[in-house]
Amino acid sequence: MKNLVLVGINHRTAPVEVRELMNIQESRLASALSDLVRRDGIAEALILSTCNRVEVAVRAREGVEADQILRKFLSEYHHCDMNAYADFLYWHRQEDVVRHLFRVASSLDSMILGEPQVLGQMKQAFATAKRVGAMNGTLQDVVNQALAVARRVRRETAIGATAISVSYAAVELAKKIFGNLEGKSIFVIGAGKMSELAAKHLLRSGASSIFVTNRTYDRAVELAAAFHGTAIKFEELFDHIDKADVVISSTGAPHFVVTREKAERLLAARKNRPIFFVDIAVPRDIDPAVNELDNAYVYDIDDLGQVVDANKKQRQHEAVWAEQIVEQELQKMHRKLASRDVVPTIVALEERLNRIRESETDRFHGRLSTLSPDQRETVDALTKGILNKILHGPITELKHGAGQPEQHALVQLVRKMFGVGE
Predict the structure, then answer these.
(1) Cα separations (Å) of 287 from 239, 280, 300?
(2) Coil, helix or strand for 144?
(3) Are 243 and 275 in contact (CB under 8 A)?
(4) Catalytic (active site) residue 51
(5) Are strands 209-214 and 185-189 parallel, antiparallel or unpaired?
(6) pLDDT (tens place) for every residue of the chain, 422 residues total
(7) Which of the residues 23, 179, 230, 241 has the least number of beta carbons within 10 Å of its own beta carbon?
(8) Distance, CA of 299 to CA of 173 (rounded, Å)
(9) Alpha helices in 364-406 (DSSP H)
(10) Which of 2, 16, 31, 51 is catalytic?
């Protein structure tokens, strides 16, 4: 893991105005990467730039100090003095870079624990780096493994399985009531942002049609058009609401929009088929007494909030196991990269001893000239067998020592004992 360096800012270290300043637009990402890897001393690079983080990771060439190169790159790219923003930056090196990238890809470092977007963003950043030739070695292996770790976390934990937004919680509850949302109809009362989000998630989950009403009819028409739905005039609400399986209400009205009496008539018109009310208005739009009726289910903003809080706790619980997975995978990566570090010594050792074998065979060529071809093959096999037995011990020790504290000393000892140069 030699020569890995990462510098970044995120939602925890920097306010939004600083993150905006440091943002590298997607359209300029490829040119920024190309600029970075052309700089002397930089072998590989990755740039991850989202609304919540900007991170630049590099593998520097042997003996190169990457910190100043990264500071100069960011200063020149953003046309500012990076020293003014030093307090917002975090730096990781070597193994900490690997751990950080594993955690970011697995959404353990996200503002919303377990959110899936960052994995897609890292995939895109990785693809861009490969496309411009900024990935060709250790850093490429690390990022590729980070994506694999994220997939394992998704597969083996439930960190992203539960809803932690009010709009997603509404979908989760609706699914519990109806089993699935295929073919269900949605009625939106009040075309606010929260209602729009909830409707969007319900439609993505299989709901087939949507009706929208609002005191300002033009706004109802606008939102209905966005969802290919039907706009209803507010005064005609109860002429159409019986078509809905899910009602999302957020009007800001000073009184109940749906009273118990209206709900009773609504259920009768639906022949007592279940109806689910999502009341995200404050003050409430749906009379709580509606919940007392058979086949009527009312959830207000507090109910949804409790679902969200419970799900957040569940995600935090799952994150404990996810962190353990990251550490397991980190150790595997450490051993893999450490093994790669000893490979040049193993190859050099094999070449050194094989040259000695060939030299000695050539020296005795005259004495062996009377041997038949079969006998020559036997001698060749004999000397190779002796060589392999001599090599077995030091090669085994080098492999076992990979990733251990004594690795460097062991490599140097083997090279010295067998006369293998650097």
Answers:
(1) 19, 12, 10
(2) helix
(3) no
(4) yes
(5) parallel
(6) 578 999 999 999 998 888 888 999 888 999 999 999 999 999 999 999 988 899 999 999 988 999 999 999 999 999 988 888 999 999 999 999 999 999 999 999 988 888 888 999 999 999 999 999 999 999 999 999 999 999 999 999 988 877 677 777 888 888 888 888 899 999 999 987 878 888 888 888 899 999 999 999 999 999 999 999 999 999 999 999 999 999 999 888 889 999 999 999 999 999 989 999 999 888 899 999 999 999 999 999 888 888 888 888 888 999 999 999 999 999 888 877 777 667 777 788 888 888 888 888 888 877 777 888 888 888 888 888 888 888 888 878 777 776 667 777 877 887 788 778 76
(7) 179
(8) 9
(9) 373-401
(10) 51
- Give the Cβ contact number of residue 295 at 10 Å: 13
For 157, what's the count of Cα atoms within 13 Å in the CB-facing half-sphere?
26
DSSP secondary structure letter of residue 286: B
